[in-house]
Protein 1
Amino acid sequence: MTLPYAFPMKTQRLPAPAGGRPLRADAERTMRAILEAAERTLSRDPAATMEQIAEAAGVARTTVHRRFATRDALIDALAVWATQRFAAAVDSAHPDTAPPLVALYQTTANVLSVKISWGFAMSQASSANPEVARVYSEIRDTCERLLRRAREAGVLRTDVDIPWTRRVYYALIHEAAQSRDDQDTDALATLVVDTLLRGAGAPHPDRL
Amino acid sequence: MTLPYAFPMKTQRLPAPAGGRPLRADAERTMRAILEAAERTLSRDPAATMEQIAEAAGVARTTVHRRFATRDALIDALAVWATQRFAAAVDSAHPDTAPPLVALYQTTANVLSVKISWGFAMSQASSANPEVARVYSEIRDTCERLLRRAREAGVLRTDVDIPWTRRVYYALIHEAAQSRDDQDTDALATLVVDTLLRGAGAPHPDRL
DNA sequence: AGAATACGCAACATCAATGTTGCAACTACG
DNA sequence: CGTAGTTGCAACATTGATGTTGCGTATTCT
């Protein structure tokens, strides 16, 4: 299945450090490398040390500390970084305006492509960072609005509970993102949406 | 909905300590208290310290160390302890012999009741303990056998992928177990099975 | 080229969690 | 009742991760 429009994966700028002064190009590269290494390393072992992250990034541990004062600051930056991509992924699918079913597929595909690369960071929604929490909360609202639109359009049953459906939807995306055999995102999105809508049951079973 | 038979919640004995000598009654009580406190504490914060666990159990930290030599040993014991209950929960639902749909409901209800109380411990399936891994693997097989039986009985569509369906099933149980408003297990089980079988979609939507 | 910035390295300081030990007081159990 | 087992408490040892600093070298940027 080909989706109506592709998620623009343009390179994003790192959020400017709180210090104010802009980063030199090599420093920004290093910072990016650290964030990516942190994601890789922490997704395998959430308790990985700064040392391990530094090694995975190919830099010295002190360099990591130069860019991120504390471990918490690193994880927080990681969460912010991933959250921006998450928000962009949702946004570019026009979840509030596209036809519900189209929006559902598109959002799913976009989010999957982010989640596959930033799984650990996106599991940090319970971040102490209020900005991250705010974005997650907004996305949650957007998602539930979309589901409500879908329900009103007859895509969902009229008796479904929206919060529960949303949680199931999130869980399905999470599962799909775990698939080691990285199929293409569209196939996974189809699987997710299909499962969400049709479930696994036969159309007319003899239910108890 | 009333289920055909109840999951027998009889008190289980703690696995005898490797040391050989049986525990005195008060010591066994303490050990149980520690395990329960560990579950409570670690489910809120997986990085909680031995100190916090001890406090939650109402004992001194040294007492925790007397019963569980190391932190790993405690978590391992917790995993073993919960795994036994997990296995018992599945077993008592007769997943291999009861009619598929009945078995599905019953297993779901039983597992939910365990998972609600032992959520953290059951998330330690990736335990280093081979016994735990073995039991989880067996249960996974049992689950897939059940799903296959359900498919052959016409409860599931003939084209569903069993491993994916199982993962979705696990994910639904996980979500249901998170419901803070502890509804009764049967209602949650109904929700899980219903969602798994029917999904959230309307019966005859105009699909793209 | 020159100034500013970034990096690796080594060394050090800190700290919190873990794990250990000894002893006195208490409790289960025969 | 007496013994063996259990607990709390205080004190100590250890360790691994974290965070800091200074300096020489390398890189970027203008």
Protein 2
Amino acid sequence: MDGLTKKRVTVVDVAHAAGVSKSTVSLVLQGSPVIPPDTQAKVKDAIRELGYVYNRGAASLRQASSSIIGIVVNDLTNSFFAELAVGVDMIVQSAGYVQFLAHSSEDVDRQNQVIASMREHGISGLIICPARGTEPADLKHLVDSGLPVVVAVRNVPGAKLSSLLSDNYAGAKAAVRHLIDLGHRRIAFLGGFSDIEVFRERTQGYLDGLSEAGISADETLVIHSSPSRAGGVDAIRQLLALRGAPATACLSFNDAVAFGVCDGLRSQRLEPGVDFSVVGFDDVIEARTAVPALTTVSVNPQRMGQQVAQLLFKQINSGRAEAEAIRTSVRLVVRQSTGRPLATQEAEIAS
Amino acid sequence: MDGLTKKRVTVVDVAHAAGVSKSTVSLVLQGSPVIPPDTQAKVKDAIRELGYVYNRGAASLRQASSSIIGIVVNDLTNSFFAELAVGVDMIVQSAGYVQFLAHSSEDVDRQNQVIASMREHGISGLIICPARGTEPADLKHLVDSGLPVVVAVRNVPGAKLSSLLSDNYAGAKAAVRHLIDLGHRRIAFLGGFSDIEVFRERTQGYLDGLSEAGISADETLVIHSSPSRAGGVDAIRQLLALRGAPATACLSFNDAVAFGVCDGLRSQRLEPGVDFSVVGFDDVIEARTAVPALTTVSVNPQRMGQQVAQLLFKQINSGRAEAEAIRTSVRLVVRQSTGRPLATQEAEIAS
DNA sequence: CTGTTAGCGCTTTCAT
DNA sequence: ATGAAAGCGCTAACAG
């Protein structure tokens, strides 16, 4: 009870208190069936009484395996990735693991640092949403260390790693077709930076969607910006300032951009969904109430997080699986703002 | 180079390759100044060549101290807490620590589980944004384990723990005064649940603000709801449906609620900031562009995260500090929607 | 300045 | 069914 002499209580102490030996305690801790119930009870009482806390570090040292999953995210500030991390955490926790989470702030150096740090802590698997500009070379060490790794959301084309990505191409194409069916001909693509694969996939779907409908693309209608709400405001402002035939609809890089586009429209006294059609990619839960008329190509981030975690565990448990590339399907969710509750119409999109 | 025989490379291997001893390697690893540069170089080369990765688990076992900070958040889905975690991470990383992040989904049992798990992993400090309904008893074990802990954002009144909270009372009062100065007399308080301390503090500020201006409070104008965007929509709908003298302004529990209130207003063809004044608490970065006219009582979550991490490190480094309760100041940010760029006016609020 | 030695708390044969 | 002993990879004394 002396505040200073408080030494860490170990299995030995527990064993002593319970009148058994070290290894018996260890076996109880692991729920081994070879220990008789009464002995188990004695040990458990001693544990409670002494306030013993299991030292997982020592255990992993001995067992050469930890129960830690690392996850490094490019930007936690983006709700999509925060939701994804939540989805991952659900699976990780239910598997009895804990989650190391770090975010790289879109900085490749930082990303390498945190990965190194995680490896030093002996993670038994890693999920990574790569920072912009991540090269296969950056992940070289990682992949040939044999650590189970899966890449989520953004691909790193050259790296031989498992990945779970959304079907960006098919989603963008479906969105464009939807807008064309609504009668639009001048359709813009707003937001995002061209140095990530996701952007390229989405713009490709956009371009192919247009050309399949016999509409020739106008490259001035593709406007880059930060993939954030503020970026969306910028992009729509630039679009509205263009001379020439005005666009009447846009596909936004993600939902943050789409929200920004709506903000920008409103500040010009235009009503999203009425004066100008907006389709957003990704689907943060808030989107449902935020802009009733906002159509989205939706990727459920929590579900995606769960899937990616499952893929990782599959890889961990199967020893050494081949790299596996999965595309999660997306849905086109059309919302109408006529009255309440909202009429929504969803369609699963196959590639 | 054989994929199966790949054994973990240890300090011994490195020592062998570099032609020195175990402890020399260890000293190099710790950047000790007693090792001559050329020996250091040899060792570092060997490390690179063998692909050695430091085993921090073994080190912590020996040193009885890890470099892990735990942070458990009630809801990562709420951008405010995601931003807070980012702020924490900045400090944690720059101190050479890594961050264990888990979220409790507002579930006290889950919260206890993850805390236990973190302790088993030997965290050297813990930051906690308590789940709703957390009792001092839930944290009893924790506090008398002597682990440095700081509570953030939400207080747990009975527990003897350091805390970093925003000045909710003063903020709410200032917001109400602002609305009164604008000429409002029927002011509502929307959103949030009354079982958390933050809610009580904010409503108290609201009530005192009213009564100091000689306005008697009308309890039908305090409407509870989930502290989310959807909750805000609900709350404003309920408010507008009330019979009797209509409210002309509201203070929202947080910014998510405020956004929802704006959504709800718009769906009734009312313009926030024109037909009805809205003040939101908390300040997610997006708020700036989202609703230009939205006045906020602003708490910068990233800054708060940094502060809380600093407080924790202070406690870790000073051995055993007394529990310390800090209130971060808040700012009243008034935004006007007249033209662009926005005219904003800020005022720091003292308690 | 560098090598030797003895554990940190746990798991795991191998005896009893 | 339980105990004894060895060792995971590292650091910290202490010798040399």
Protein 3
Amino acid sequence: MKQISDTQAPVPDDRDLLDLERFLPYRLSVLSNRISTAIARVYEQRFGLSIPEWRLIAVLGRFGPLSANGVAERTYMDKVRVSRAVQRLLQRGLIERAMDGADRRRSILQLSAEGRTIRAEVAPLALDIERGLLTALSRTDRAELDRLLGLLDAGAGQLMPVDEASAKSS
Amino acid sequence: MKQISDTQAPVPDDRDLLDLERFLPYRLSVLSNRISTAIARVYEQRFGLSIPEWRLIAVLGRFGPLSANGVAERTYMDKVRVSRAVQRLLQRGLIERAMDGADRRRSILQLSAEGRTIRAEVAPLALDIERGLLTALSRTDRAELDRLLGLLDAGAGQLMPVDEASAKSS
DNA sequence: GATATATAGTTTCAGATGAAACTTTTGGCC
DNA sequence: GGCCAAAAGTTTCATCTGAAACTATATATC
């Protein structure tokens, strides 16, 4: 004889049916896209820079000279993006490329004088934007946020190892 | 006679030259992309759903029936994305579309029976992923995070009004 | 009730994207 | 030295994306 209820497919109650607005990945995605879009617009209009291009400048300014791969690792961009950003910035003369004498597959990238100038102009603007975002947060709030983002990074690491995410070196 | 130092272009010191790794918009972007990519992979492999498609299902399940515009408003997706997601889900029979009798420009979208089934399967998976992300956070940490994201949303609102960001209705 | 303006949704087009293939060079390994 | 696997970057190709143009309908103004 057929059993009742226990073996039936469970009828999901509302607890199992997620509410998009409270779903953390969704909230992060909407927030981050909103911010990135606004920033991209500013960089584009004022400096003709895309976000990948700006990241390249920022990271070369801070850690350069670097190989393309070094850039990819530090920016979480894949090598195709880096390659394209490098090409455009070379054309514009904002970076310089040399070949590594010891390993001729590898390039050596660094900011040109003009690139350094651009970085010095863009960076304060970026910091202004960040300040605007954070106006409503107290000093301790900011420290909290920093800590919590760190924890989320760790959680995301479980989900998807960093090197599989994007910063592929091959 | 030319003045010295005071009128010269300021030489930016390191304080003005941002460090990408500490720059909030960058951190949010990397974190969010990492999570979204991982989730997109799961949805795609297990259910053949893109993220826009899943968002449509989630929001229709929770608030449906809705017009395409209603969906756009609640998901922060632009109307082109919504339109495309609608088409694919109609093809797959996961949603149904009727015309609004009172306003024949407007469509009325809702989940089909099969759509409801899919939602009931995907939602717990999504919640599992979220739980994974949050394992390292205590109950109070989670409340803090919620609050801080709310503040950031407000800050982002200053940067870029919601309706200009993406959920354009026209 | 004709004309103008706005809205819902779709289509078009030009650019962005990333996985996979490819080229070149390097580093074993025999 | 010769051969094979791996790494650095680039190119290709198929897909995704969103701004702008477009279609159809509705609303406002006269």
Protein 4
Amino acid sequence: MTYLDRTVPESSVEIAFTRHAAEFAPRADRWDETATGPRAKTLRMREHEIVFEEGDAADRLYEIADGAVMLYKMLPDGRRQVLEILGQGDLFGLSGGDAHDCTAETLSASGFRVVDRRDAEASVAGQQKISLCLRDRLTFLHEHAVLLGRKSACERVATFLLWMALGRARRAGGAPATNTAVIRLAMTRQEIADHLGLTIETVSRVISDIRRRGIVVADGQDRLRVPDVRLLARMSSVH
Amino acid sequence: MTYLDRTVPESSVEIAFTRHAAEFAPRADRWDETATGPRAKTLRMREHEIVFEEGDAADRLYEIADGAVMLYKMLPDGRRQVLEILGQGDLFGLSGGDAHDCTAETLSASGFRVVDRRDAEASVAGQQKISLCLRDRLTFLHEHAVLLGRKSACERVATFLLWMALGRARRAGGAPATNTAVIRLAMTRQEIADHLGLTIETVSRVISDIRRRGIVVADGQDRLRVPDVRLLARMSSVH
DNA sequence: CGAATAGTTGATGTATCTCAAGCAGGGTGG
DNA sequence: CCACCCTGCTTGAGATACATCAACTATTCG
């Protein structure tokens, strides 16, 4: 019995392309021209489709209306590092230069609001929103560098699960009222491993171990229940 | 003979505090009130002084006029991760929330331009400068996540040396005209190790190895000469 | 000159990776 | 409807890159 399967929502029907078809089709073909406002387009994509690839022109900004996206980079020999996991409300596509510095791929079926980069940067409000998002991202990447550079496999997995358990709530700031949480992973072991700088097998072993110790409990197919989030926090060496 | 010693420029004489004195003195005492423009102050600090600590109120922005700074985070048990190495022209102090998410410490004697965060964010030009800097930082942290998550000790050190060899030039974009470079490290082995997610001993061993293979040559006390930067690039698995 | 600090090098240990086999669930088609 | 296959996951055994521990050397500074 797999206790942590990736979700297959398959709720989006707008786009008929398969993943591979989308990769070979001109990008513009995938725009849904439904305007949500001046100069804003919406875009729907299935699970595991590529939004843009490293090196593509970085002329558009994406805001996640629903769904989830991962950003990653590849080394020439195939090693992959998943840099960030993004969810509802997050902005992506803001690279340093003219080209994207990483690839963006959906984790589940997702909807995006797409705006031209120049338009977004034109208004003060847009600038502020971008800045806010960049700062959040920076803070996360700092925390993640600590994880990758200095934490053990066990601490890495615990930190990741804790992060998933707190979810978007962590942004709101207030500590959650309850000590229990339910996690929906929506990621494969490979994706988790590539995010945490580990191998598939190590991730699997650590999660098995954490389950054996009762810190998380399998709860249906793609869900983990965390009876006491504080136990996870203790394992993860967050201060 | 140590071939890679940290620089001790000791060119700044404005501040009389020792490192420890500065740590215990109220932060405001260290401001040099010489105004360089409306609401801009300058600040000089010695080598290895702390500019701010994780948790301090993030109400000021710092721009490096000269010198170098590292940002780092600590785990409760003393493990440290050096997140970024900053130099002339770089901005720092822009954390996500109201408090700094990391500590900033000078690597060498440095001068800063200090502005109130609200003032900097008020102008469009300021916003743009901040955004530009944040984006550069993001790109670097992405690259560094690949290093920490997926590269071997050898690749990490080579990547780091390559980064130091290219120096600020990497921002200009154009490939350097020459294949040779000289690196001034201005960092201790411990700082390098904490940046690369390694131990002091591993860094030392790898550098010794790279020297033995002739890829870098000791050149005075704190300098490394790189006869062919392309050899470093090959070692570092950059694409 | 001698103590203190930073760096190097060697011997040994171990956390994680690698390789390999087996298992579970979900979909497909006979 | 059930057997089969495919994919993703788990588990074990063995290998290894890097950490740890420890001794030594070089450099700086008083």
